[in-house]
Amino acid sequence: MAILTMIGQLLLALTILVGLHEFGHFIFARIFGIRVNKFYIFFDFLFPLPNVLNFALWKKKSGDTEYGLGWFPLGGYVDIAGMVDETKDASQLAAVPEPYEFRSKPAWQRLFVMLGGIIVNIILGILIFWGVKFYWGEEYYSKAEVNKLGYYAHPLAQEIGLKTGDKIIKVNGEDYESSGDVRAALMQENTNFTIERNGEVKEIPVPNDLIDKVASKVPFMEPILPFKVGEIAKGMPAEAAGLKAGDKIVKIDSTPIVCFQDFQAAIKKQAGKKVELTVERGNQTVKINPTVTEEGTIGFTSEMTLTSSKRTLSFGESFITGAKDALSVIPNQIQGFGRIFKGHISAGNAVSGPVGLAQMYGKSWDWERFWGLTGLLSMGLAFMNALPIPALDGGHVLVLLYEMITRRKPSEKFMERTQQVGTFILLTLMVLVLFNDTFKALFK
């Protein structure tokens, strides 16, 4: 069921993103009087072979356009009359151009048609970020709240000189608002943390290649999270041993437990074994003896007692904040690509495929997380499509800009060849990403 939930969320998100991206091309084509033969979400053929396994799960003809849902859930497309794309080659465009065809229109109109998907994805991303900010507001751990107890340093953080209990007072010499700002700083180059440890102020430089390990899901650091026992799972060791909601676990065998991270680390070491938990229950101290599962759990949810801050935003404030956050995705993507080329982060850790994306959506359906990730993906899709790679929108835009500058229109044969090269590049990247994605899911 959990896997189906992850897949369902990803498919819904892709349907929304791809459908509206293709609608961007569609609407600009219609504005300029260009005929659209097909508008499909997903492919109705075995991509990239337009004449193999041609069938649709659903289709309907309206006017000149056939609308449909394809069987191959990789993306989607619009078949624009008179344009070389993944559905046709130059031989199909040998006749004299018709007035309603893409190739008969001025270069500036064709440019807007090609930019239509990117424009719509950017607008969609801003609208989603706006809606998330307005409906759910902003919840975060403030700097003041986190620094009451400080940060929990996992082994990776300890490698660069951080210790559990350190209080981060500045990031790159400047004040910050929340724990999220601290994590975001890892995306930047030459980051430096100013910490307070036992009343002494120290500077901790962050190596530029640390982001590669963090991106591979290795725990780094997080606010120390004091906790108490929440809901007890039915039929699990915690219930059998008599653990109760509201209990505070202070010791596992002889290991003191101060925070949730201590509990996680200690309980996993005892997988499959019987342990003694020292529990504070009201004014009493109780000892119980559950047997830890092979997965390193005993079966309860935790309630964090670190107080989070919640900020409600007005309609106007949420738009400004949402638009700012949405648009910041693009420079962050550019910065991320730059760090790949500099060797700070490997491409395998920087890029996620369908498996990784499904895992990001999670095993339970959370609408705030769903829309937040979908907004992020919309901005990411806009950026990726803008890359000057043949077969992507950015490749077509590059050729059109060349035509507008030189006033020389490339031949249909040239466009066919660039489309083929671009498709080969994309397929190769897709195979590599899918292989990397699957490898990480199975072996990490």
From TrEMBL:
Keywords assigned by UniProt, alphabetized: Hydrolase, Membrane, Metal-binding, Metalloprotease, Protease, Transmembrane, Transmembrane helix, Zinc
InterPro entries membership: PDZ, PDZ_6, PDZ_sf, Pept_M50_Zn, Peptidase_M50
Organism ancestry: Bacteria, Pseudomonadati, Bacteroidota, Cytophagia, Cytophagales
Pfam families: PDZ_6, Peptidase_M50
Name of the featured protein: Zinc metalloprotease
Every PDZ domain range: 229-283
Chain ranges passing through the membrane: 39-58, 111-132, 370-402, 423-443
Xref: CDD domains: cpPDZ_EcRseP-like, S2P-M50_PDZ_RseP-like
PROSITE patterns, alphabetized: PDZ
SUPFAM superfamilies reported in the protein's UniProt record: PDZ domain-like
Annotated compartments: Membrane
Gene Ontology cellular component annotations, sorted alphabetically: membrane
A Gene Ontology molecular function term of the record: metalloendopeptidase activity
Matching NCBIfam families: RIP metalloprotease RseP
Organism: Emticicia aquatilis
EC number: 3.4.24.-
Membrane topology: Multi-pass membrane protein
Family from the record: Belongs to the peptidase M50B family.
Needed co-factor(s): Zn(2+)
Biological processes, Gene Ontology terms: proteolysis
